[in-house]
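Minutes, structural biology subgroup

Action item carried over from last meeting: produce the structure token record for AAA+ ATPase domain-containing protein (Buddleja alternifolia). EB confirmed the sequence was re-checked against the source entry. Recorded below for completeness.
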Amino acid sequence: MKIVGFMLVRALLEQYFPHPHHLKNSVQEHSEKLFTFLSPRIQITFKEFTGDRLTRNEAYSAIETYLSSISSAQARRLKADIVKSSSPSLFLSMDDDQKVADEFEGVKVWWSSEGKAIETKTRKRRLFTNSGSSWSHAPFENPATFQTLAMEPENKREIVKDLLAFSESEDFHSKIGRVWRRVYSLDGPPGTGKSTMIAAMANLMGYDVYDLELTAVKDTTELKKLLMETSRKAIIVIRDLAGPQATKLGETKEQEQNDHFELLHFVDGIWSGFGGGRIIVFTTNNVEKLGSDWMGRCRMDKHIEMSYCGFEGFKVLAKSYLDLEWHHLFPRIESLLGEMKITPADVAEILMPKNVPGNAEICLKNLISTLEGAEEK
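Output recorded by EB:
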């Protein structure tokens, strides 16, 4: 009764004193403190996994078992799992965002299960980087999408289809006894859009990104620790596989290739017994340097070649940067792009208006001039 009376007073104050924000904020602050003091409820959260995320929380498992019969009687949505034992049985538990009532020694208790999918969808994505064997993170704010990616439309559709199929294949992987993960390799010269592709993947899937810096990793023990501390449903990026960070000074080409294979097999071994829902992306600027049998030996699920800018990719950039669907200079640009090699990053830099609102025709002529100059050379 006291709580109801207090909430009525608070509502009246907010109705008749709507403008003085300092008074309103003060009322809200003190009302929340008083409501907390008067409320008899206490919230306790049990995490499904322990702090290191390697083992399941025993308390969580015990509660899940205890609630099995209560959930089946009260919850409107249930999750069903098969308990593997000498005599397999069906185990029922609350589905996400369900709540059931219970009583313990005369005290009313409410049990609820939070939806991980909802939490992942609504929270902001993060970009993780490593220093030694530990991760730090910042907000992931790259807005790249497949719609703005300068790439042939058919290739983009194929990649999106593959990613969406992977996102829905958890049950299938469990059925056939394979770890639910997908391994991609991105190959292309600098500026062809490998980083943009990774950002587009992350935004499509709603995944965090772990950008693994190999040069900061001391040994395989640190590498194992880093990989096992990544979250479920995340993209783990290992860059420049054939670049300086993956090559030791003085090594022969054969030694370099063996190191690459050892790294990939080591990573593959970790995932074979841990986790799921992860996408692993290897990037390289020169796939030939790794050897012709690299793809066959390293269990890559999909190889994506990031090529130079073609006309279809240019049209995506022209739409994004200049808001142009068509222009009379497009045929000349199409002809030049068919003969010259230029990266999407370089095209984007040329199309970027140098003033606001900018002149689209000037930007297009600058691109033509650059391409014609390269053609002459």
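Discussion: The mean pLDDT is 76.
Next step: EB to file the record with the rest of the batch.
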